[in-house]
Fold each of these.
Amino acid sequence: MTDYISGRVAELTPTQVVIDNQGIGYVSEISLQTYSALEGKSQATVYVQRQLNPRDGSFIDYGFATKAERELFRLITGVSGMGAASARMILSTFTSEEFNQAILSEDVNRLKSVKGLGVKSAQRLILELKDKIVKGEGEAAEQLFVPSRNEAMEEAARALVMLGFSKPNVNKALQAILKKTPEAKVEDLIKAALQIL
């Protein structure tokens, strides 16, 4: 199994990249996120995820500019009913941070703005990924969802939920506070969140 390919960027379009490694061209399907990261580069490393195409039984390689994006792709395709095409569309529509926010705030309308994603699919994404994002599972969580891993935030969130505030509103408020004051202590987070909520 291939983990990554490094070499010359032989071809780059918004949907595909061809990496030339010692005279062999490796083609990978990519998201717009990866396209933006690779644009203008002559050399690149692409992290690969091989997926089975259910239509014809062939394998397709999906390429990512970062391990974190690949891990997020794996999280999305791990959701029941979510295929590689849907995952790529999501990663082309949102930045990783925007997707994180949509999941944590349970924003079904924002998620269903992705082409081909309906209400039920959006709800399923939220249901199956919210705990993984909050708990900070996987490499994507470590690199993309850093605010969720903050112990002070988790403790403050538990306290605020026990006070009767809804989890999505609590997470939204705490993340806004942490953006301004990343080193805030639990009591400071709770006080500031109470003013917002």
Amino acid sequence: MECSPLSFDKWVITFWALANCKNGISSYELARAIGVCQKTAWFLLHRTRHIMATQDFDAKLDGVTEADEHYHGGLEANKHESRKNKAGRGGVGKVIVVGVMKRGGEVRVKIVPDTSKATIHEFIKDNVQEGSEIYTDEHASYRGLEEKYIHDSVNHSAHEYVRNQFVHCNGMENFWSLMARIFSGTYISCDAPHLHRYLAEQVMRFDFRKSTDADRFEYVVSRVANQRLTFKALLAENKVGV
């Protein structure tokens, strides 16, 4: 908020709205609510997401965990002909996001360049304590996790989603479902260079899902110090990506 020409009440409303609106809030809606132009509201929201993203993980996840991957991007059938990807189907041309969550607890996600075994294993190694239980689907990249983890998987291609009421990755898939809802409703035009901040917004709300609105608001406000994001830096992302 350093050198901001906006009054403090506009910042506070933005913090509260983004922390507590389950499906997010669009820059147009916020602009109408606080009496600023859409570009100013867009900048305010991204600065708030930046605060949500700059969190430090003190320890790796342990206990029972779930891992899964997600492909972010619209359906090819819904795109203009000039923007359709001619190279293939499925995840081709989409942004890959991998995630892991402690069952009943917090979730961590990361945008990755591919779903290779090396990439997936590195992400899990960085976020999950060795020896923990980890459940996935049967994607080939998860093979070998049993060397350092108690690993089991479900076969989605055989319509298996839960085994023995315990082996599943439904918690992680629930997070993807909630995330997809905000992109099909509120954030229908999310540029890939800014996706990591929208993910941070959803992760923060998900991690505090059992908290009150006041707790979520207090958490966001507590992270304001030394977390400035300039408009120039924000626009530069559109050119170089993330």
Amino acid sequence: MKRSHIILLIFIAIAIGVLISFMGNLSTYETIASAKQKEGKTVTIIAKLDNSQPIEYDPAKNPNYLCFHIADTLGNKAKVIYHYEKPHDMEKAERIVLKGRMNGDVFEITQKDGILIKCPSKYKDDPAAARKNLSQNQ
């Protein structure tokens, strides 16, 4: 075999290895019910804040403890414990993306970047403001 063929084969093997390593990081979104079946494993859930339950957060007592309830699109509900400070404008969220583990009926988030708040667009209810902003940016 020529030296160029060997180098090409090594390059292809490295590329395949990199692709396989990325495949392991692909995550799918789970429902609360499917997350309960995968108890102890890290999963990602998209849900809405359950406003019928209070949000427990007392920064004077413990700034790294937030407890709230969520509901997914199928109507399943769960209690969530987040071990960091409360995200800004959490009550205004349309959806919340959570990454953590189920422990019984409680979803625990142990990473600071384990919660992502999806807030509503400020132009959603005002199409005129959206058009004005578009025309200014062009």
Amino acid sequence: MPYAPVNGITLYYEEAGQGEPWLLLHGATGSIDQPSSGWAASMPAFAREYRAIAIEHRGHGRSTQIGSDLSYDLIAEDLAAFIDLMNLGPVHIAGVSDGAIVALHLGMYQPHRVKTLVCVGANFYNDDMVREANRFADVQKLEQEHPEWIARLSRLHDRNKAPGWWRRLYQQVAANLAVNPCYGVEDLHRIKAPTLLVAGENDLWGNLAQMVAMRRHIERAEMLIVNNGGHVVQFTHQALVEPVVLDFLRRHRDPAATAI
């Protein structure tokens, strides 16, 4: 299994295809093999044109964790180290939910490592709607009301860690969501890479007001709004989102890249 040692942890990743490298990031409590939270369903199509590399964030899936800190800037530091370790150079990055926020962070503070950004269901600060949506992060309530979710979390995140690791991960995710993200308009202005923002019109986290603000303040941003879509439209509306994402990348790929 492919693991990359970075920042005192090991990141699990899977890759397919050849060409320009494209990092694929999942959402909070997700993993590579959970299609709803990431890009597993689109991986075959992406790999036909790019070197598609799906990564599990620290503490998630088969990636390890040290300490109790989990934040977007820490995950972004892991990815920057991964890019350097693998000698990837500037890369395309596509993220869903928390992965999309990490992608924005890299665009703000690691611009030399970023070629393009695709952000599905992102927000850049916690407004009242986001805070209400984040109430899901209650371990005790989850155990009482959603045992099937507990079984899934255990299967995804305990497999190479101590039994019950998922609880610690969930608590770390909740602590991060309570205070992050907290970017401002000036941070959005830092992003110079071509950026595609994808939003479901009914999304509570990547809500339309924030996505429209990002579209206004990110210099080279484009936007796709999915009618009747929720938070993970790359999965629920794959047939609509996937070709738009691929078209966006084709328009911003390296002219010297060999077409496949």
